[in-house]
Specification:
Length: about 280
């Protein structure tokens, strides 16, 4: 009898333990954990309806077949786009490659989740806006103006894109036009034009050098002429300042042939040629 009671107690204890294990296993099979990492947030659904938003990084419980947790990357997004456009003068831009960086506004994330769907943001909002704004901006310029105005175009596209996407809760960080590729015919024309302009610039530079050199020669001649005229003026002014006797002496000196006089009349400064007197 005692052995029977002992066995019965042991069976009861075993049953309790087995029941506890069954309950634990059952609960574990009905619930799972979802881990959300830093840089992400979670949205919890139950039967397809949002019951919790903005789940923070960490572990979160959900019931299989009932609950679902969507993990959303809230770090900076970087998307590459490639578009073809037409310029103002109907030139074909076969490919414009650009990169767009953007982030979600956490205060407006609920709108994107409920009305657009995070997975549809890029295809339904960002890409169409990029295409429309870029084509409109490129259409404002002639083909040959695109290269020189590349920075202006990039800034204009960025400003317009930022303005249009702000209402959706999408913050544009930056855009970068990486490449502008025209059709082969137009690129050849542009290349030839650049080469011609370079040759013209070289010719103008050489012409300017010759002009400067010629001007230098002309200036030197003018300086020389001015100096000679000045010296003549100085001499004339000096002559005008002489009295009559001094002027006569000066004229005699200018006409003197360099021969010494052969005779001198006493008490005078008049010279005469003795040889002529003998004749």
């Amino acid at each position: 009898m005692r052995n029977y009671e002992t066995i019965l107690r042991r069976l009861q204890i075993f049953g309790y333990v087995a029941l506890a294990i069954f309950i634990i296993v059952g609960i574990s099979s009905l619930t799972t954990l979802t881990i959300i990492s830093e840089g992400y947030v979670g949205v919890k659904y139950r039967f397809g309806t949002i019951i919790a938003e903005g789940l923070t990084p960490g572990a979160h419980i959900k019931f299989p077949l009932i609950d679902g947790i969507e993990i959303i990357d809230i770090t900076e997004q970087a998307k590459d786009y490639s578009e073809s456009c037409y310029t103002k003068d109907i030139q074909t831009v076969e490919n414009i490659a650009l990169k767009v960086n953007y982030k979600y506004d956490l205060n407006k994330l609920s709108y994107l989740i409920r009305n657009v769907g995070i997975r549809n943001v890029e295809s339904k909002i960002v890409k169409p806006q990029v295409e429309s704004i870029l084509k409109n901006e490129i259409g404002k310029y002639k083909g040959e103006e695109l290269i020189s105005n590349r920075t202006v175009i990039q800034q204009s596209v960025e400003n317009q894109l930022r303005k249009n996407l702000d209402s959706y809760g999408i913050n544009i960080v930056s855009i970068n036009i990486k490449n502008i590729d025209f059709d082969d015919t137009f690129e050849k024309v542009i290349s030839e034009k650049v080469a011609a302009e370079q040759q013209l610039l070289t010719a103008k530079t050489e012409a300017e050098k010759l002009k400067v050199a010629s001007q230098g020669t002309a200036d030197a001649k003018k300086i020389e002429a001015d100096a000679e005229a000045y010296s003549i003026q100085v001499v004339n002014d000096a002559i005008k300042a002489l009295d009559s006797d001094s002027y006569v002496r000066l004229q005699w000196i200018n006409k003197w042939n360099g021969q010494l006089p052969t005779g001198i009349i006493d008490n005078t400064s008049i010279l005469y040629d003795i040889g002529q007197g003998k004749k």
